Amino acid sequence: MILDDNPYRQVGEVKRGGIVCVADHASNFVPDDIDLGIPAELLNEHVALDIGVEGIAERLARRHGVAAHIACVSRLVCDLHREEDHPKVVPTESDGHLIPGNIGADIEKRLELYHRPYHEALGKWLDQIQPELIVSLHSFTPELATSDEERPWECALLYNEDDRAARHAIRLFSELGLNVGDNEPYSGKQLNATMNRHAEAHGRYYLALEIRQDLIATRAEQSRWAAMVADVAGRVLLALKAQA
């Protein structure tokens, strides 16, 4: 649900420095005045949101002192993790599913209502906090409908030009016995819009973390992963400071 006409909400105590979380795809909410023309059950699948991410972001904020900026609108309405001029910022199809309500949609209006307020607020929030590390939290489906490619990774770190934090996180998650993807199943060279804008452009350290959705479907799993993410992120930050 969108609160006070904002396509985002901010959770947790805001304090200068430290670690924060950003969750671009946390919600499957579709405003009443938008008809996507899809079956209702599709809103509970990966095409509409990153399953499990909202629960982890909430727990990071409320239990681990990692304040979070959380999206409140489905990526089928407007994909906040795309540049404004990206052809899929208002998608007309996703993983083989046609989104007929988006064909001929007023993209400028969607950007004005959702994309710009989300990123303007995020930018101001980060400028105020000046975090030492940003965790950009996403999840991925174990299997795409349009591909038979195996996705064995339990989590993955994405990056574009700056892999300083990612390298430490890949090592640390691997030491926990996890199968960790290095710029898999997506490459941050192509899909890193939010961190390109709010982290790399400002020289901020970041972890673009993908977790496989079947591992974080329940509250217990989300609590476990929130604790693990908070621990690894904290150790990454210590490693980065030691290098500085």
Topology of this structure?
Layout: E1 8-11, E2 19-23, H1 53-63, E3 67-71, E4 93-94, E5 97-98, H2 107-129, E6 133-140, E7 155-158, H3 164-175, E8 180-182, H4 193-198, E9 206-212, H5 219-243
Parallel strand pairs: 2-3, 2-6, 6-9, 7-8
Antiparallel strand pairs: 1-3, 4-5, 7-9
Tell me what you see in this structure.
The structure is a single chain. This protein has 244 residues and is of the alpha/beta class. The protein has a single domain (8-243), classed as Zn-dependent exopeptidases (Aminopeptidase). Helices cover 32% and strands 16% of the residues. The chain has five helices and nine strands; from the N terminus they run ββαβββαββαβαβα. It has helices spanning 53-63, 107-129, 164-175, 193-198, 219-243, and strands at residues 8-11, 19-23, 67-71, 93-94, 97-98, 133-140, 155-158, 180-182, 206-212. It has a seven-stranded mixed beta sheet, sandwiched between helices. A hairpin with a 2-residue loop joins strand 4 (93-94) and strand 5. It is globular and about 50 Å long. InterPro entries: N-FG_amidohydro, UCP029730. Keywords: Hydrolase. GO terms for molecular function: hydrolase activity.
